[in-house]
Amino acid sequence: MNAAHARSNIGAIDAAHHMHPFSDMKKLNADGTRIIQRAEGVHIFDNHGKKYLDGFAGLWCVNVGYGRKEITDAVMRQMNELPYYNTFFGTTTEPATLLAEKIISHAGPRFSHVFFTGSGSEANDTWFRMARVYWKTLGHPEKKVIISRKNGYHGSTVAGASLGGMKWMHEQGDLPIPGVVHIGQPYWYVEGGDLSPEEFGLRAAGELEEKILELGADKVAAFVAEPIQGAGGVIIPPSTYWPEIARICKKYDILLVNDEVICGFGRLGTWFGHQYYGLEPDLCPIAKGLSSGYLPIGGVMVSKRVADVLINEAGDFNHGFTYSGHPVCAAAALENLRIIEDEKLVERVRDDTGPYFAKAWKSLEDHEVVGQAESVGLMGGLQLAADKTTRRRYAKPEDAGVVVRNHCLKNGLVLRATNDRMLASPPLIITRAEIDELVTTLRGGLDHLRDTMPR
Ligand SMILES: *Cc1c(COP(=O)(O)O)cnc(C)c1O
Q1: For residue 21, is it within any domain?
Q2: Which residues line ligand 1 (CB under 6 A)?
Q3: How many domains does the chain have?
Q4: What is the pLDDT of residues 275-326, one digit of tens each?
Q5: Residue 416: CB partners within 8 Å, gap ≥ 6?
Q6: Which among 83, 136, 121 has a CA at the least distance from the CA of 327?
Q7: Would you identify the family this protein belongs to, as annotated (predicted)?
Q8: For residue 158, what are the domain limits?
């Protein structure tokens, strides 16, 4: 089959041979898949030449935008010099080592080491074992339960999906694995009842203390959470939540793990999400924005506290991946971080586009079908509502989100819908004018929902 013939046939070939992640394949094959052909800046183009503003940065990851020749050049140079070597048997490569140094330089003095993986899921599998090895080495082999949250997302491997709190994922494969338990999420709009957001934040955090007391602090290794839940719907916790969680972890000597896979690398206007909230985590899985998605790479940032035990006392850590510290992926990530530094993208989100986005996003709260529009940096969550005065939701929340998402798509804007929340996470290079365009197109989608779906 020649290439031109194949191109016109991609839809049929895809249906015949390609299984997609998180998809109902029968439905996808009937509807037909969209084919993305090329991209530049904050825009993607499909195979018909239709242009979209990518309000989702690929999948939360293309922080520096598309078409960065500096990154592809760095990748080509590394490919030609050394396309692969491992970091297992007493060896390293220059990009892997320099990348670890670079990441730690932004993580602050609390952290000392990075363990590399190929993805965010693998990063979660990695700290999961680190946390247990840590306590076992210190003479507490029973301190091994991990507490996580309902509706959290930590990837799709067996450990990642277990740590995550998605019931519909647990149902497939008999998850979670033993030793992982879940508490509630700080989702005030839907679960807060008559409490104020601040009261509810304390209540939701209090569930951690209740769970620790129920299990016994001597049985609990760690608590894991995203600074802001991403895939769960950009659930921004009330202001009281994180200080209370931090207090509880300290009080009972539980490791705090912040999953920085989305919040890391500038998304919140700080290098890392835990810095935005002033937290002191012990382990942080990272991925996505680390390479802006140009090549797959993830890792775990390890605090001095944990690294000292793992390195000086635990002996061999029997864990790793063929592609841990892959030199080409590391070269892409190094160049990506150089761009973030040189173009001051973190500061730009913090001081300019973040506040601008916050104001534009918040302006949608005047719409009849919007219950709440919140954001931090360039991460926005918008709650749809059938009745905004009583916080009543649509009868089928997931359908409401799909209506808005599809209307936006038709009008050249990619956003994600999680149930009845619209999520935005654009590339960090987005301009004020492009933010206006994003919000205006979304408003059109909200109008469409108001006009077509009974409340
Ligand atoms: C995407 C994501 C992961 C999983 O990363 P993969 O690279 O898809 O394995 C883990 N945690 C969070 C918070 C994520 O958003």
Answers
A1: no
A2: 60, 119-121, 124, 153-155, 226, 230-231, 259, 261-262, 287, 298
A3: 2
A4: 999 999 999 999 999 999 999 999 999 999 999 999 999 999 999 999 999 9
A5: 56, 405, 422, 423, 425
A6: 83
A7: Belongs to the class-III pyridoxal-phosphate-dependent aminotransferase family.
A8: 71-342
